[in-house]
Amino acid sequence: MTDPNPSPRAFSASAPLKGKIAILGDKSISHRALMLSALAVGTSRVTGLLEGHDVLATAAAMRAMGASIERTGDGEWVIDGVGVGGLLQPREALEMGNSGTSTRLLMGLVASHPITVTFTGDASLSSRPMGRVIDPLSQMGADISASPGGRLPLMVRGLAPAIPLAYRLPMASAQVKSAVLLAGLNTPGITEVIEPIPTRDHSERMLKGFGADLNVETDGDGTRRIHIRGEAELRPQTIAVPGDPSSAAFFIVAALIVPGSDVVIANVGLNPTRAGLVEVLQAMGGDIELLDPREVGGEPVADLHVRHSALKGIEVDPAIAPSMIDEYPILFVAAALAEGRTVTTGLDELRVKESDRLAVMAAGLTAIGAQVEESADGLAIDGTGGDPLPGGATIAGHLDHRICMSFAVAGLVGKAPVTIDDMGPVATSFPNFEALLESLQA
Ligand code: S3P
C-alpha cells in the first residue's frame, strides 16, 4: 500500500539553525511502557509518550486485547492493565501499520497467552522477515502460520502454559530478544536469552522496574545472559519517557553540517546501548557538548549543545553498530559532507529495516551528487569537505521515515533542492520533525 495522498516536499539550502528544541519521547521505550502497563495489575501513568503512528498501533493492539488506555487532556496516558496471563482474544486482526517493533514484541506476548491473533501491516512491514521471532516462539509452543518467506500477514496461536526456552540470538536484535523475554513473562519457570552482542536494553530495565524477576549476567567475552522468571506479577508504574536519541540524530547532524548553526537539543536519551552516533560524530570532529546529565525514567539523559563543525571521514568500528543501528542513514549524510572517506561495515541488518537502507541511501546520495560505494554490508563515502552537495533530485522514501528525514537534512546543504516524494512516513516516529526544523530556521 502506498499512500493515496502522498505529501511531497522540497528541502533547500538553509540559513544557520539556531535555538533550542526538545525531542519527543523515545519510540522503543514508549512501546514497552504501553505493553508492560497493559500487563500490570492496576493503574500506570506515562508522560512523554511518543504519539507517533507506530506507538499508537501498539496502544490500539493492547486495547483490543483488553487493556484500558486513555490519554488525558494534558497529555498523560493512563493505563489499566489486565495482568500477565490476562490478555483477551481480540475480535479482529491487529493492524501494525509500519511498525516492526509493535509486531515482533506483541507476537512474543501473544505466544504465551491462550489466544489466536492475526497481524497485518503496510507494504514495508509486510516485506520484513518475521522468521527471526517465529523460530524461538515456535520452540516455546506457539503455532504460527505466516505468509511465504515468514512475512505478514501471519497468525499466532499462543500456548498457555508455554515451554520455557534458553535461546541464543542468531543476530543482534533487541526486537527478537524482547519478543522472547515478553513470551517468558507468562511462561512457567525461567526463560533465558543469550545475547553475544549487546543491544538496546530498555526491555530489561523496564521489566525490572515493573517488578519482574529478571537478572543479567555478563560472561568474560561480553555475552549477556538474561533470565526472566515467568508467571510474574507486574506492579503498575509512573513512567516519564525520555527523548528519543534516534530522532535527535537528525538535528544533531543538521546542526553539524549547516554552516553557522548553534543548537541545543534538550531531553536526549543517552542510554549507552543507543548513544553510538554521538561518539562517532565526535570522533569525526563534531562539536557536541553534553549539558546537565541526569536520569529520566531510569534512563540517562542530557541536553546536547551542537555547533557547526568541519567533519572528517573515519572508519567506523562495526562493533558500535548495535548502539546506533537506526542512525546510519543520517550518519551517511554527515559523511557525505565530511572531508575524506568514511567507511562503514558490518551493517547487513540495515537491509531488513523499513527499507533496504544501504541500497536506498546509496542510490539517493548518488542521485544528489555524493560519492558513494555500496558493499554487501556497508557504504564507503567520499565527502565534499563541507562544500554543498549538488542536490536537485527527487528521492523515493520507500515508506521509511528515517530515509525521508535523512534526505530532508541533506537538502539543507544542497545547491539545488532535494525533494522527498512523501513525508507521510515521518509521522510513524517523529510527527513534529518539520515544525522543529522550521522553528530552528526562524
Ligand atoms: C528496536 C530495535 C531495533 C531498531 C528498531 C527498534 C526496539 O530493531 O532498529 O527501530 O525497539 O527494540 P532490531 O531489533 O531489528 O535491530
Task: Report what the structure shows.
The structure is a single chain. With 442 residues, the protein is α+β, with helices and mostly antiparallel strands. The chain has two domains: 9-25 and 242-441, Enolpyruvate transferase domain (UDP-n-acetylglucosamine1-carboxyvinyl-transferase, Chain, Alpha-beta prism); 27-240, Enolpyruvate transferase domain (UDP-n-acetylglucosamine1-carboxyvinyl-transferase, Chain). The protein has twelve helices and 22 strands. The strands form six sheets. Strands 2-15-17-16 form a four-stranded mixed beta sheet. Strand 19 and strand 20 form a beta hairpin. Helix 3 (100-111) packs parallel to helix 4 (131-139). The longest helix has 13 residues, at 27-39. The model has no long low-confidence stretch (mean pLDDT 97). The structure holds shikimate-3-phosphate. The site of shikimate-3-phosphate has 10 residues, from helix 5. Residues 14-435 form the Enolpyruvate transferase domain. Its EC number is 2.5.1.19.
